Amino acid sequence: MTKQSFLRILQYNIRKSLRIQESFLIDREVREFDIVAIQKQDCNNNDLQSFSAAHNFFHLVKNSSSQSRTCIYVNKHLRLDQWIVETAESNICSIRILTCNTDNETQMLRLLNVYNSCTLSTTFTEKSSIISHLNELLKNDCKQLIVEDFNLHHSHWEKRRCFTRHTMTDTLLNIITNVRLKLLLKSGTITREAHNQFTTIDLVFSSEKIQFMTRKCKIRIDLHQRLNHLSIITELCLQTISVQLST
Hints:
Layout: E1 2-4, E2 7-13, H1 18-26, E3 35-39, H2 52-57, E4 58-62, E5 70-75, E6 83-88, E7 92-100, E8 106-115, H3 130-137, E9 143-149, H4 155-158, H5 168-178, E10 181-183, E11 192-194, E12 197-199, E13 202-207, H6 208-212, E14 214-219, E15 232-236, E16 240-242
Parallel strand pairs: 2-3, 8-9
Antiparallel strand pairs: 1-16, 2-15, 3-5, 4-5, 6-7, 7-8, 9-13, 10-13, 11-12, 14-15
């Protein structure tokens, strides 16, 4: 067993492509990440664990619903006693990971993977939406990291390119403010390219303490799978215990 110096998290919207999801997980670079958070997965596939790459290298966390849009792959090099499943709903998955900081102090990190379905209406404010549900799930007294595709536009993360603003972003920003979350991904970073439009809808938020432990949070273009979304890596200065996997 060895200690890893950093916790490495990768997120990607695979746009319901089973072929892309399989290809993505087979990638040697992807298999090195501790956590892979998938958004807009192929919800019609009820046996994602059957992928040879996933089965050999990852534990799968997902909801059994046929409408599930999120899942989390936890690398098998992390010890099983280091993490637990917290939530496995259709559009939200969350786990808790036991880590330690550079001073060797134990830190429990809460990781949430969220997908908010796209709506064409910029004034949609349905109280049953996943954004409203976040208010019940997010806590202001713990170290947490939220990786998500909210499908919402706002100048807070899109800067000058934001031509449309969704009403639901006001709800989201109120929630984020109340639990004191910080935007980790640099504002204005292009995360989706489609129809000559360059937008920022895939985001990363964290609690303040996690913000100061962040080593990097950026786009990884080299892991691009010819989709209009780009993958995002987040690297935290948190140590985990890894085990040697048999080859």
